[in-house]
Every structure is written in C-alpha cells, then in structure tokens.
Design goal:
By secondary structure, this protein is mainly alpha-helical. It has helices spanning 11-25, 37-44, 48-60, 78-104, 109-119; strands at 64-67, 71-74.
Length: 124
C-alpha cells in the first residue's frame, strides 16, 4: 500500500482505501489480522491517531472488527460488502457520468453501449 502526501485525499482515507484494496485483491483474507495503528504509524511514518482514524472508518462500516487484546481483523462478509460498495461507486462515478456526458453530446444510451462493445477490450 502506498500513501501519498500529494494526494487530495487525507492520509486516513488513503489508509482505509488501501486496506479495502488489499482485501479486494485477496492479500488480506476474512478473519486475518491487519496492522495495528502503531504498526501503520511506524511503517508509514505517520501519527498513530491518523492511522487509527482510517481503521475506525472500516470498523464503523463493519469491514474490520476488534478482538480484545489481539488487534483488528477482517470481518466475515467484508469482501462481498466491499465488492458491492465499489460496484455502486463505479456505477455512480463512471457509468452515470459517462451517460450524462454522452447525452449532452446527443448520444443515445444504445450508442454509448455500442461504443463500449466496439472497444472490445483492445488494451487487454
């Protein structure tokens, strides 16, 4: 996971999204332990409170949970939840915006779909 001081996103959001990405990639599995706030602070040279804020975001969403005396772990169902969450965000951020822009340019939804089909993964 890379954190960027140049990003417009706060560090704690980058931490939360980084953990989410690692779960989505299968690098951290359900019921596996994640780094502690102090470990994050040491590895990324940040304030432990900043790391804690990112971890708390995921705890509030039910992605992580605390095992008393042991640390933070990935919750059961976290992968499924994250996929659904990211799919909704993808739809809102990319699909809807693409359709809105296309319609401004007088493309029908069908024409946009045909453009996508015609692309056919040429960069794959």
């Amino acid at each position: 996971m890379l954190l960027s001081g140049d990003s417009t996103k706060p560090i704690y959001v980058q931490i939360a999204e980084g953990i989410e990405d690692e779960i989505l990639k299968g690098n951290i599995l359900e019921d596996e332990q994640v780094l502690s706030t102090n470990q994050f602070a040491q590895v990324y040279n940040i304030n432990p409170a900043t790391a804690g804020k990112g971890i708390n975001m995921l705890t509030e969403e039910g992605i992580l949970f605390k095992k008393r005396g042991l640390g933070m772990f990935v919750a059961k169902g976290a992968l499924k939840y994250l996929k659904e969450k990211r799919r909704r965000k993808f739809f809102e951020d990319y699909v809807l915006k693409t359709l809105e822009e296309g319609h401004k340019l007088d493309f029908s939804s069908e024409e946009i779909i045909e453009m996508i089909r015609g692309w056919g993964g040429k960069n794959e």
